[in-house]
Every structure is written in C-alpha cells, then in structure tokens.
Amino acid sequence: MKLTPLADRVILKMVEAEETTKGGIILTGSAKEKPSVAEVIYVGPGGTVDGKEVTMTVKPGDKVITSQYAGTKVTLEDVEYVVVRQNDILAIVE
C-alpha cells in the first residue's frame, strides 16, 4: 500500500529524538521532547487550493521543521507518518 498526497499535502516521517544529552545523560521516554524535525517522504502536486495557486517548494528527502501539533498521524505497515499542508512546514533544514 502507498500513500499519495493530494493538492498541497506533504507526507512526513518524524526523525527520532536524541536518546542522550550533550553531557551524556540518558533520557527516559517521558523526558524526551517531541521531535519537530521530519523527513519529507511524498509531496502532493500543488495546484489551485482555496482559489490560490500553490507551488510546492519542498521535495522528497528534505528535512523540515513543523509546528508541534501540525498534521494528521497515519500508520501504514507499522510506520508512523504525518500528513501536513505545505503551509504547516515552518522551515527547511540544510
């Protein structure tokens, strides 16, 4: 099964949070912050959304930063993805 985003939607896979701090302290599951960095997996075609022309600026493989509560979580074949609109992406990490 494959996910195909429509319009200005982007499918992301969250990047795992660090398990240790820079000082070497190992963090438990509850102490870790929810990661906001994700990898772009699939990108929709863009087009006209709400009467405005949308050009997709992200591409598969990009690392991006999203707001913490953006998107809809989807689990497919035991892998969790997040589907967001392109305007929910705050920045591209280079």
Can you characterise this structure?
A six-stranded antiparallel sheet has the order 6-7-1-2-5-8, with no helix packed on it. The chain is an all-beta fold and 94 residues long. The protein has no helices and eight strands. It starts with 8 loop residues before the first strand and ends with a strand. The protein has strands at residues 9-14, 37-43, 47-49, 52-54, 63-66, 72-76, 79-85, 89-93. A hairpin with a 2-residue loop joins strand 3 and strand 4.
H and E string: EEEEEEEE
| Amino-to-carboxy terminus distance | 30 Å
As residue ranges, the low-confidence spans are none
Shape: globular
Radius of gyration, rounded?
A: 15 Å
Helix content: under 10%
- Give average pLDDT, whole number: 86
Reported for the largest beta sheet, the result is: 6 strands, antiparallel
What is the percentage of strand-forming residues?
35-45%
- Structural class designation: mainly beta
Number of helices: 0
| Beta-strand segment tally | 8
Order of strands side by side in the largest beta sheet? Answer: 6-7-1-2-5-8
What's the layout of helices and strands?
Elements lengths: L8 E6 L22 E7 L3 E3 L2 E3 L8 E4 L5 E5 L2 E7 L3 E5 L1
Antiparallel strand pairs: 1-2, 1-7, 2-5, 3-4, 5-8, 6-7
